[in-house]
Amino acid sequence: MARADFGFVVHPLTHAQRRILGLRLADGDLIRDRVRDPRPRDIAHLSLAIPGRAAPLRGVLVGVPQTTEELLADQAAGVEAVTAAVARCGEVHGARFVGLGAVAAVIGGQGKAVARALPELAITTGNAVTALAAADTAVQLQEGRPDRSAPLGLLGPPGPVANALLDLLTGRGLSLQVVSPKPPGPLARRAAEINASGYGRVEFVASADDVLRGGHPLIAASSTGGRLHRSRLPPGVIVDVAAPQDVVLDGAARSDLLLLDGEYVRLPVPLGGSPWQRLYRWITHQGRSVFGCFAEPMILALADRPDLATVGRTVPGETLQGVGQLMDRWGFTVRGLYAQGRPFIPSRSQLGASAAGDRRLPST
Fold first, then answer.
1. Are residues 165 and 232 in the same domain?
2. Which one of 80, 136, 278, 360 has the lowest number of neighbouring Cβ atoms within 10 Å?
3. Residue 362 is assigned to a structural domain of this protein
């Protein structure tokens, strides 16, 4: 077995995904949607043949069987399971860089507990690449709007990705309507600093409905997801950043709501690996383009930059700058808009005050 350069820890987002994981692992309990063996297990081996690099970048995908709800409900057990999975990446496969996927990056103080337990490894939440990819997506969305000076909505501060987006987007001169009916002190002070700078502008609104009813797209970037329900939303455009998704797909698909993905990064070359990597790609719709959190440990391993691995509620500005430079160096890009992992080109009318078509595919 080849030594891995990076690892990535995942968990099923839905009970259906857990049953598919059970098929992969030939685990009858998981197929029946039961967890009797909580130990982490290998899902797939990965490879990335980067031009100009002597050997392929190799990785391993390690899974824990708990769903999003289970990890959040019993965070002590969740941290224990994620720590064991990260340790497996390092001890069994030799990976020095390990990324945390979805809620694995949220529990335990946004990865701090896992990092304290395994200080010899560079553990990262993926929040830097997620925020950079979401910012590029938002800018491309804004460029297609009839009024490019109109504000964008932002849901999620004071979460780490949303806080980074606040600085990245206003730093590009965009105005934001931040959903926060009672802004905490640090967030209010940061907004005042941005407004005083004269570059970009921040105003607070009470709800996501206020953004959408004003005809503005909403960037939804909370840490835990499930903040919005499709059936209750006004018409409009929502960019849903990261998994688990903020928009719960309840009720029927709608003709007046456009739902876009917010963190897809195009790899410099297609991702290869074991046959089970193709199953993971099919389940998650991650082919040539992958989630930002998935790309981050690859990028850090390519550059051998453990100093840029981040856990916790803050993504420092120098980390965003450094990781962005590495993305440019190695050819990790954000090109166009996506709907559930597939390229999507909206019409200008869809990006105006009223959307025309719910383009998100059914969740798995």
1. yes
2. 278
3. no
Residue entry with tokens 């990819």 = 133
What tokens does 259 get? Answer: 């739902």
Question: Left (φ > 0), alpha (ψ -120 to 50) or beta: where does 215 sit?
Answer: left
d(C-alpha 8, C-alpha 272), whole Å: 15
User: Which range marks the domain in which residue 166 is found?
Assistant: 129-264+336-351
Read off the pLDDT of residues 55-110 as tens digits, 9 standing for 90 and up: 999 999 999 999 999 999 999 999 999 999 999 999 999 999 999 998 999 999 99
Contact 131, 319 (CB under 8 A): no
Kindly state whether residues 163 and 120 are assigned to the same domain. Answer: no
Cis peptide before 343 (omega within 30 of 0): no
Query: Which of 317, 114, 109, 113 shows the shortest CA–CA distance to 223?
Result: 109
pLDDT at 246 over 80: yes
Residue 298 located in a structural domain: yes
Per the domain annotation, does 358 fall within a domain? no
3-state helix, strand, coil in the chain (%, to 5): 40, 20, 40
Does the pLDDT of residue 129 top 90, yes or no?
Answer: yes
- How many CA atoms within 13 Å lie on the side-chain side of 320? 22
Q: Are residues 210 and 282 in the same domain?
A: no
Rounded Cα distance, 169 and 166, in Å: 6
Position with higher pLDDT, 359 vs 81: 81
Q: How far apart are CA 9 and CA 116, in angstroms?
A: 17
Domain contains 309: yes
Q: How far apart are the first and last CA of the chain?
A: 31
